[in-house]
User: Fold this.
Amino acid sequence: MRRPRARLAVLVSGRGTNLQAILDATRDPDYPAEVVVVVSDRPGAYALERARQAGVPAYVVPWRKDPKEFGVRLAEVLERHGAQWVCLAGFLRILDPEFVERYRGRILNIHPSLLPAFGGKGMYGERVHQAVLQAGVRESGCTVHFVTAEVDAGPVVAQVRVPVLPDDTVETLARRVAEQEHRLYPEAIRRVVTGEVRFEELAQSRR
Ligand code: GRF
Assistant:
């Protein structure tokens, strides 16, 4: 008998191409997870439309001055939908530590660089690729990691490398990385929900 699928919440703020990649993966009945709810902090996020098109409940939880209050509202929505895992997919806010603790070891994020390089507060979107090009490094990539209280610093689940080419612009590099993100995220989610990769083991081996 097939195991019940893991129940994912996906948090978004923007266009949602990673959400789309996850939704597409879940169309395979053998994929071990399903998206049960999508939450955006921004009403205009195109990702909400993608969720609706896939028949997944989608909500806006507007950002609050007090991140703790946002965390409480968010948790209410996730609980109502029985979400077990939280996947950040282009979600641009920093979650409050109490929320992170509540879902300890069950929150994933995708970042468009080879963390720990080019990560941390303020490093998101085009800024990451800009910094990579400015640094003149020959390789970049993307990382899926567990979320902990420290931004972009949780244990790494999986990474993919891509070359940085001499005539790259932010756009060409971003496109090359994004293509890999869309393959990496569904695969990293699979590894985590099946227990192939475990937060506690990764966290311990870093101590
Ligand atoms: C991706 O590059 C992801 O790594 C970063 O934000 C971007 C989101 O893009 N965290 P999309 O909304 O999934 O298209």
The chain has a mean pLDDT of 97. The radius of gyration is 16 Å. The chain has seven helices and seven strands.
